[in-house]
Design brief:
Blueprint lengths: L15 E4 L2 E4 L1 E6 L3 H12 L4 E7 L2 H10 L4 E5 L6 H11 L4 E6 L4 H9 L4 E4 L4 H12 L4 E2 L1 H13 L15 H11 L4 H8 L3 H15 L4 H10 L53 E2 L5 E2 L9
Parallel strand pairs: 3-4, 3-5, 5-6, 6-7, 7-8
Antiparallel strand pairs: 1-2, 9-10
Helix pairs in contact: 4-6, 7-9, 8-9
Amino acid sequence: MASTSVSTGENHGVHVDNVENGARQLIRVILADTQAIFRAGLRKIFALEDDIRVVGQAETLPQTQSAVTKFSADILIFESALAPNPVEAVAELLRQSPRLKIVVVTPAADEQLTLELFRRGAHGILSREVEPEILVECLRKVAAGEPWLESQAIHWVMEAYRGHNLRPSGTRSKVQLTPKEMLIVSCVTQGMKNKEIAVRVGTTEQVVKNYLRKVYDKLGVADRLELALYCLSHHVVDGIKAPALPVTAPAGGAPQNASAAGAGAGAGAGAGAESASRAVEPATAPAVHSNGAIRNQTSPEKPS
């Protein structure tokens, strides 16, 4: 089959569709598959959905890399056969476009490929024989930030986590985390997002992201879900309590403490602030959808 250039789909603009419980955001999709007939079939399926639009197509890996750079898309549907090493290809595409979510289509169920793809950041993994309605549901779940696996794949992933077999033995040697890293990891295992962690630890969101990247490298994990499961199974943060929210004076409360006697060094000022009372959701284990989705009660953020 002759190579074709990357092509765009219709309806590029931002679109919001009114549904029962509010507005549904448009999901922009790039199709990357070696078979034109398969891409055409997907386009027909998505044309029936008001909230899904194909914005680009590709049939080779270089075209796919070009497409994710050229087009603004939410999800890339990526055929594993596009690359000799689909795991590395997915990791490279995510490095190229960190905000992109990737759903990998495999020719058949493959345990090792599934585990490696999931570990390296694939957001969804489906077999080529997937039913159209399941594929559409998968895209909506992934667009909402939820991982998607088929029933057999869920079993493989959970068994790999339980048995610590996601990576070869010896790659996760015992490591020492710093006290600051332990605090941040403790917050992650309780389902907190970077913004809340930054407030509790007394730093910025960017610093929290930097710490998490270092922790990922130390522990040999790929994302927040794997970090939480690893820490819980290895008792990494046992006995470590997440820092409480800082206590501040209520608005219009006690006056600021300021030394009016002199402007020299040592003069202190206490700033009043609004009350910071808020409820913190307890840590929850990932919930498994019967339709094939793994869903966290508190959606984790992934460091960009």
